[in-house]
Amino acid sequence: MGILTTLGSVLDMVEDNQDVLYHIEEQVRRVIKSVLDRGQIDYYEEVLALANSVITYSISEPMWEIFFDIHKLAISQDGIVFVDLMPVLHSYLTVDTDGFLARPERLRAFIEIAVNMFNEDMEENDQVHAAKLLECLILECQGKINNLVPDLIQLIFTRLHQPIEDCRTLKPALLLVVIAGLYYDTDMFVNLLPQLQPHGINTLNYLVNELLSLAHCLEGVHDRKMVIIGLCTMARLSATHRPTLIDEKAQQINELLVALLIGLQKAMKIKAENRLANEKESDIKETEEEVGRDEDLADSEDEIDEDILEYLETLAEHQNKKGRTGSDAQTFESGSTSTSDSWDEDSMEAYYTPIDNDETADVFIFYKETLDALKASNEKLLLSMTTCTNSEKQVVLDGVLRVCEQRMSLAKSKKVEKQGGYAFKVDAPVPDTFNFAAKNSNL
Fold first, then answer.
1. In terms of domains, do 106 and 222 share one?
2. Domain assignment present for 190
3. Each residue of 328-362: pLDDT tens digit?
4. Which of 82, 182, 226, 384 would bridge 250 by S-S if both were Cys, CB 3.0 to 4.6 A apart?
């Protein structure tokens, strides 16, 4: 265990230095390979964390070989804990998505790992994480896996209609995969509806009803964003394809959207505060480290190279396996905002997707644009959604709309800033004379 701890410490120290990571990759990879090949179960968690650190910036061909070693273990279920797999699998997907998709066998292996978790003998906690993995895949590969999305969505609906012990955790995770499919390609999803079992063309009504029922289980930033996107997308559909429940429960749906946006604001604030606190703590630790740690690191590289495999030979084969559970996974618990919206690097919030980039998916703007679209195409539905039963609800709605408008203005300002500011015609001819006496009705 000592050498693994040392390697972990080394990688922690150089995590921000891509060049150093590149130079020590082979030594670390040999350790990972040895542990996986020897089936040293007690050290799987540690070597998976090492693998995740090594592929922080890029993924070499030898590290793709490690990916297939991980795949074999995951499929065989030989002592591996799926929760431990999540970070490194997410990195393989997101660090180099083009490289991931360039070789079909990589995508097949990735999907097989996730789908394998939906066997009936698997724990629901593993299935929650597998659902998250599929959601990340669909969102990350938008427009690039058209032939796979229909089967993945059907798999999720099949699981949704099998017994679920804890509807507060697994069911919301499964529904988010469905929303990811709807977001991936709305037209494709709508065309797929007649084929989806068991609800067929009523699938979207089922989705709306489930979201209304499980809204109290939602927490965090990402999950709220996804549900807002899902409901707004369905509200924007033409009358032919729009689920009837959108019209029948328009007011309830809008009240849910408003509540989600308010909860999202609070969750975003908590997430930002936690990040700042973590950064501050990290800065304090860095100031306390020894000044000469870079020299120590340079010396240790040779030692690792010489001793690493020999050390692994002596690792105990029959130690008691360290107790590990999926307790670090974020659950959809109800309760006060301060607890249910807590965030750390081990929570589901850590598995970043394109949806989590506010510049490309600002749901406050998306909500306001949805209302604007309805104003142009379906004023009756807009009125049904935004009519409030009392003045208190009206005040809340008006407050949310102000925030939406502020974010729209901010987004426009950022766009102008990225373009280099407002455009002025520098080549415009300078007039020979200036007529300051010209009439102007506005003055």
1. no
2. no
3. 333 223 333 334 555 455 589 899 999 998 778 89
4. 384
